[in-house]
User: Fold this.
Amino acid sequence: MKFKLFGKTIEIKNGTSQLPPVQNDDEWAAYLAGRGYAISANTALKVAAVLRCVDVVAKTMASLPLELFQQTENGRKKATDHPLYRVLHRLPNEHTTAYEFWHMYVANVLLTSGGFAKILRDRRGFVVGLLNIPTANTSAIQTNQINGERYIYVTTDIGTTEVLRDGEFMYTPGMRFSSDTDPEDPMKIAADVLGLTRDLNSYAQSAFEEGANPGGFVEHPGALSEDAYNRFKADFEKKYMGALNAHKWLFLEEGAKANPYSRDLEKSQALESRKFAVTEICRIFGVPPHKVFDLDRATFSNIEQQNIEFVQESIAPMAVRLEQTIYKDLLAEKDQNVYFAKFNVNGLLRGDIAARTAFYHSGRQDGWLNANDIRRLEDMNDISKEDGGDVYCVNGNYIPLSSVPQNLPRGAKQ
Assistant:
């Protein structure tokens, strides 16, 4: 028995149907080879692993507390009186929450050459709102040759074009290496991997939807008589059709033999290739495989460490990128030496509360952390100098470090 699949002739022998192997089959390998793929952000999101990677990074960033701080003589404090605080922390505009805004903004940063937002200002020039701009609706950064001012063209939902100049848009560029002005499109860089994954998905779907997958066949040494055929058909429909009769074997006549079909997608390496593609996509976005529910190599002992690495290698760098974008585009020059924005990622590193408590306790007791050092790690307000917030202490009685010499035992070396 023969049938066609992706231009390949599949032959069934001895009741076994196998899809063509990837290795040692130049035609099939050429079909799946990542050559000439055109992948956009929209098509990439149709790959489940891409959607999950982008979503997990974007929603992690969106869920982190983002606050504006003011540097004072006593350390830093939350700048709740500054107009920008509310915009960053709670409501970028009247229709969008901070979570919604940063989720979309980070998704654009991950999938395109950069993220854009329109800046809304009041008459005094203070930032009072931010509006997301899909990167697909913007032009590349243009530069005025006369005064050096940057500007972009933005296509609105109604089809008109708007020009935004420096000070009117926030911009986080993607990776640059071949041009000092134009970032690379990550989807073009990853086109081979994503295109191959898309074809593997199509291959698996076609194998089930279009491939020949009968349950088995009955082999007879000669032609059945009409009476024998009618008896077999009636007996088959009565005793073997339907869910309740599944997996029953047939009793045949006149030397007929029943042969079950064997379907082995694993021998075609399609399943292994799809699993490997998931790992490759995780590498592209810097997401541990267990975050996309690939638990093949995950254990209870290493997932916590992988979560910490995810924060250190994916979330923290993204936080720094966005914090510096806010500093560059949303703070006036006179405010840049006083105010700064910060994402609080400490909550993501608190996997083991007992370990964190022991860490703080050890640092406080041994004199290399003071109360304010610990509070800053937790993004809490400082204790004033008058109340001893900056005092370093040692031993269980928390004696000020400056008082240690006169409290040493007699004869002890200082």
